[in-house]
Amino acid sequence: MKPIVFPKLAATVVIACCFFFNQTAAQAQPTDKKVSVAKKDDRPSPPAEATGVIGDLKLKINYSQPGVKGRTVWGELVPYGKVWRTGANEASTIEVSRDCKVGGSMLRAGKYSIFSIPGETEWTIIFNTVPDQWGAYKYDESKDALRVKAKPSKSPEFNERFKFEIKSDPQGDGKVSLYWENLMVTWEMR
Question: 81: domain range?
Answer without folding.
Answer: 40-189
